Amino acid sequence: MSSNTATILDLPGVSAVDEEGSRRHALDHCNELMASKTAEERIAWALEHLPPQHVLTSSFGVQAAVSLHLVTRLTPQIPVIFIDTGYLFPETYRFVDALTERLDLNLKVFRGRMSPAWQEARFGPRWTQGLEGIEAYNHDNKVEPMQRALRTCDVGTWFAGLRRAQSDSRNDVAYLDWSGDRWKVHAIADWSDRDVFTYLKQHDLPYHPLWDQGYVSVGDTHTTRPLHAVDHPDETRFFGLKRECGLHDIDLSSL
């Protein structure tokens, strides 16, 4: 049994049977435990009980300041992994700079192995090539760099800002999940949009600059649309062909 598994199996209320069964039992137990905690308490619990290296990932999207502030208040120099596709909005890059300076972030930037210009020369604009093209583009510019980031940083526990209220595809987001020997923590999984607004106001933190222009989700320039330009919120990303880019579906056991 790995040391990462043993850490969580030593918690009160978790009994060992076999490795797979024990981890599932531990996961269920810990999700029940986290349901009664605040976001700050969930983060503190994870920092104490889950294995290092701890990292936080951020897309520096609309509400990114919430997780960045919550986590770095408790562990200021935690590595913050950011995936730069080379096609982000100018406002996003400036938002990254502003929050990095304000919160003194330990920013770790990862990019695709091939430059955007080279990709376009070789493949053309893949985001115009239907679902298959979008998925290939996302793999090379988001998924593969994230896999490399998690390996490079030797990650044991990954904090992310997913919330159930963000989309139908995130309705079942758990507070704690695992794959292989890596753990994933969603401390604000149960937060509503109002909870986010309240926290940002309380701590004088900004939304992404494009929020005021009607963007409810912000990714690459070529596959992001403001809410007023589409018929359904799901169409604000990837033309409605898909909702998730694949970053949060990475099989951590294969890294």
List keywords for this structure.
255 residues, six-stranded mixed beta sheet, 6 strands
- Low-pLDDT stretches are none
Q: Could you spell the SSE succession in H and E letters?
A: HHHEHEHEHHEEEH
Strand order of the largest sheet: 3-2-1-4-6-5
- The helix content is 25-40%
Describe the main β-sheet briefly.
Answer: 6 strands, mixed
The CATH architecture category equals 3-Layer(aba) Sandwich
Mean pLDDT: 88
What is the CATH homology-level superfamily?
HUPs
Strand content: 5-15%
Structural class, from secondary structure content?
alpha/beta
Question: Quick one: how many beta strands?
Answer: 6
The total number of structural domains is 1
Concise overview:
Helices cover 40% and strands 10% of the residues. By secondary structure, the protein is of the alpha/beta class.
